Amino acid sequence: MQLTRYKLGDLIVQRREKNKNFDVPIRGVSKEGFIKPKQQEADTSIYNVFYRNDFVFNPARMELNSIALNLEFEKALCSSLYEVFYVKDESVVLPEYLNLHIKRDEFARYCDYIGLGSAREYCRFANIAGYEIDLPSIDKQHEIVEADRLIKRRISLNERMIQHLEATAQALYRKMFVDNIDKENLPDGWRMGTLGEVADIKGGKRLPKGEELQIEKSSHPYIKVADMCTYKYVILNREIQYVCDDVQKLIHQYIVSTDDIILSIVGTIGNVNVIDESLDGANLTENCVKLINLRNISNSYLYSFLVSKEGKSIIEQSIVGGVQGKLPIYNIEKIELLIPSQKAINDFNLKMGIIDMDLKIRLKENSKLIELQSLLLAKMGQ
User: Fold this and answer.
1) Separation of alpha carbons 67 and 85, rounded Å
2) Domains contained in the chain, CATH given
């Protein structure tokens, strides 16, 4: 692929337009894109105006890639602390192609390197203007942008279906075990119990002092709270890091197995996931516990309880401490829950099996699509 090198400053123009009483949306910007501002009422007369296909960035957060391309609004406002630019000639570089380029890790590292200031580093328009970028032909740019769009559309479609499947699973749980259930008059074979009765609760392990996680893939993944997701299954993905063989020898007994339930107990407390087979044998952080050796219930039932409105409320009430809260194992063991009959559990498992199969397929497909997307970005400058 033939490439032509440019300086970013030769491709873009800074926009310096201030608000003139426009009644238009106001947005902040983060690594994920545009966000609603924290401060709802403010003097917007000094705010910057930006238009469709404009880039908006936060000079104080560029090392975190806090920059976004506006594809949503015809006109909008952003804080005067932000800076705005647009592509000078779209026959040379497409805004969406440029957006893909500056979302690469290389651009964030460049911004981190040249950030200026003392107490707080800034990377302004004049700084990023010196960034060098290799561009293919405009036709090739169109091909890459379209490929990225297709990947994003498929990811978005899967995410909507995943959310629907999760909602369906929770609705099924509530129909069978919450709605119209009187705890004082339970059906035959049903009873109330505690989590400690139906599961063993084991902690994870802190990395040995001085040891660090590795980016390079190995056979020893290390699951952190940050690796937990909002959906049921946590699967092996490109964000998960690893421990080396020597560290593995020290912490090898603190691992998880397929279908174990993990629960975060420090920091972001109350995240719940089920371990996918792709992470069988992975190491578990000390900031989580695993719920294993289930008795009289299934992992699908226990997961559904823990992520239900009632389960979340009980977990929140079980946290101890102030600013640095923690969910101790002895409080987890005391959590009260309904223990249905084995027949009811089996009926629930049968229905959940169909939902889980579809859920796993879509989660794994999205993981592969994200890897494909990263590969596409990595090859842009080659």
Assistant:
1) 11
2) 4-135 (3.90.220.20), 185-340 (3.90.220.20)
